[in-house]
Structure formats: structure tokens, C-alpha cells
Amino acid sequence: MTLSEFESKLNEWGQQRAPFLFLIDFEMQKPLAWKLDQVPAEILFSVNEFSNVNSKSKQSVSIELKKYPIPFNEYQSKFEFVKNKISLGDSYFT
User: Fold this and answer.
1) Distance of CA 91 to CAs 4, 73, 74, 85, Å?
2) What is the C-alpha to C-alpha distance for residues 50 and 52, in angstroms, rounded to an integer?
3) What integer pLDDT is reported at residue 29 of this predicted model?
4) Domain definitions of the chain by residue range
5) Burial of residue 34, with CB atoms counted within 10 A of its CB: 0-12 exposed, 13-18 middle, 19 or more buried
6) 31, 69, 77, 82: least CB-packed within 10 angstroms?
């Protein structure tokens, strides 16, 4: 689905007041959208009172996150670099 097709579809569903779910990647290259009653079973969502998750589909998965913090002085110099760029009006830099 192209971005313009995606926009048209969401506008159409919005005008119909049809509830829908959409996903869009950061680069806006691969948008996906479904009416709520057509969301594929492998995609689970829960937003306020809208959900397709039931107790049978919930899985107990143990997730372990590991952190590797950088030294504070290294963080501080990078943070100051970003603050300086923002103060110069640079909102996009690498």
C-alpha cells in the first residue's frame, strides 16, 4: 500500500466512523491498516477499550534487559554536543 493509498483509506474509514488499527514504519514506506474486525490474529493490540487480546492468547514470556551504561563524562559531552546543535537550530544531525 502506498502512502497516498494509506491516507485515502484512513480518511475513508474516518468518514465512515469505522474503528481501525494502523501501523506505520519510521520512514513511512510500509504503512498497514485494518478495520478492527479484520486485524490479523497474529497482531495483538490493546488500546483503551479496544482489544483483540484474550486470556488464552496471553503468553508468559520472560524478557531480560541488560544495560551497558557509558561513563557519565562521556554521556555529558555527547549531551552538551546535542544541546549546542539544538541551540544553533540544527534539528537533524548525526
Assistant:
1) 27, 24, 22, 7
2) 7
3) 92
4) 3-51
5) middle
6) 69
